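Pilot study result, target chain (333 residues):
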Amino acid sequence: MPIKLETATNITLSAHSLEAEDNMGRFEIMKPPGAWKDFYDRMLGEKGGGNKRKATNFTIPFLGERYRCILANSAGGQIITMRQLMKEIPRLEQDLGFDWNVIRPLLEGSGLTIFAGQMNSGKSTTMISAIDRLGRAKRGNLGTVEDPIEVEFTGGGVIQREVGTHVDSFSEAIRDFVRQYRKTIMVGEIRDPETAEAAVLAASLGHSVVGTLHADSAIDIPTRMSSLLDTKLGRILPSVLRGMWWQHVYRRGDHLSKPLPIYESLYVTNSVRQIIADGPEKLPQLMNEMVSQKRVSMAQSATAWIAKGLATREELRPWLEARGRINDAQLSL
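Predicted structure:
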């Protein structure tokens, strides 16, 4: 079944081809339809006049959707990569299939909660949905800094800023939100030392800070965060961490199979803080904390899909055997 372009979540557009991928993982290459060819020519005229060695980032509405675009030069000529943005916030349980009672403790009170995963893992969508599920009364005044703004929060008490449009950097927006009495601060991506330091400091001042990070597992999160912090703030990190969530979405690449979320999480208790403070060599002990909290690991999450007949062991092997952190005997816990 051909991909409908309005359902394509990722598009690569050039003068002579359009590559489309949808949320099911299906991929198709085609000749750009007329409207898309006109869009390409118009964007080159409006955005492509600068330094050809530098990419141009922009967000634009097109054919009823919003896209985050990057126009860049390549060996094959000028290309535009486009990511479709959300129209509305998905529902955590009904649309994403996650248990609110698992995520809720990771967001209550003050501190730093990290939603981690690799690129295109859905971590930002889950973070946004979870903050929305928390509700206006518990989250309080909300400030978000994103690149780009993924979706509009409703209900009042919200300031949303886009890097490059409303503010120069993630870190500057976080510092502003502290002075603007934002109880909850959402950081679209923690990807540099300045952003990591501002997030930790805001959390240490009593704010609820929620952000995304590229990491290979929940247990990998402290190491990734520490690598962005200086020694002083690295010592503070265990005391401000509140929750850690990691996920990946497995897509089969056909129109019949729904995406399967694989995840693991950890609520940061005093014993978890002590393990993190004791250094990287102690981090494998966090698996025991996951078990004691009755939280599933990525291997257990993947095994549940296999048990339901929705995927094979071979398909999900990377998450069953990753990093040797859990063996088959533990999967029934």
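One observation from the pilot: The first helix runs from residue 34 to 47. A full batch analysis is planned for the follow-on phase.
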